[in-house]
Design a protein that fits this description.
By secondary structure, the protein is an alpha+beta fold. The protein is built from 9 helices and 10 strands.
Length: about 200
């Protein structure tokens, strides 16, 4: 794992995430392809986006780049510019180099460098995703999204307080196959589909 970028040490408290952000950019520059966070579920084929040099999703509300699903051609110019902006690495800022600055300094300046999906089509918007996944059932999820970011690490939610403030039963739940059998939310249906069993 990288510990520095352009001679600047990564933040100790954010090392794992910031190093991962840089690694995904470097791998896509070298090889191109599709990057998915490990908690992203692909809902529809992504092949149509391979026709663009770079495809990104962005948050519905703040319109910053979503980094959990990236589709790129090898040596995409956007990726090279994105990596170069790490020369001004902001160690104390969680998403500045990964989402905020590439949006403000690159995409907003040269929008032709990326194909932007319909906002949230790769599941980048937490404000939309949390209630859709964990608080209600969205019958059209298979058609509305190409990929969905589940916001999970292992068998718990990463943004649990934000996502579940109205679902105290899920705050302490271990999300496993027994729990998802009875869950009447979009996430419950997605999990049952992935685990290949019916209620």
């Amino acid at each position: 794992m990288h510990t520095k970028i352009f001679g600047q040490p990564f933040s100790e408290s954010k090392l794992r995430w910031h190093a991962s952000d840089v690694t995904r950019i470097q791998v896509l520059i070298e090889w191109g392809g599709i990057y998915l966070d490990k908690d992203v579920v692909v809902v529809q084929k992504l092949d149509r986006f391979r026709n663009y040099e770079m495809t990104v999703d962005y948050e519905v509300y703040d319109l910053f780049l979503g980094t959990q699903t990236l589709i790129a051609g090898r040596e995409a110019l956007f990726l090279r510019l994105w990596l170069q902006q790490y020369r001004r690495y902001e160690a104390d800022c969680w998403m500045c180099n990964a989402a905020v600055r590439p949006t403000k300094e690159i995409i907003n300046r040269w929008p032709e460098l990326v194909h932007r999906t319909t906002p949230g089509a790769f599941g980048a918007s937490i404000e939309e995703l949390c209630p859709m996944l964990y608080l209600r059932y969205e019958p059209d999820w298979r058609h509305k999204y190409y990929a969905i970011h589940l916001l999970m690490r292992a068998n718990s939610l990463t943004d649990i307080n934000y996502c579940l403030d109205r679902r105290p039963d899920m705050m302490t739940a271990v999300i496993d196959e027994h729990y998802v059998r009875q869950l009447n939310t979009t996430f419950g249906e997605i999990a049952r589909d992935l685990l290949d069993f019916d209620v």
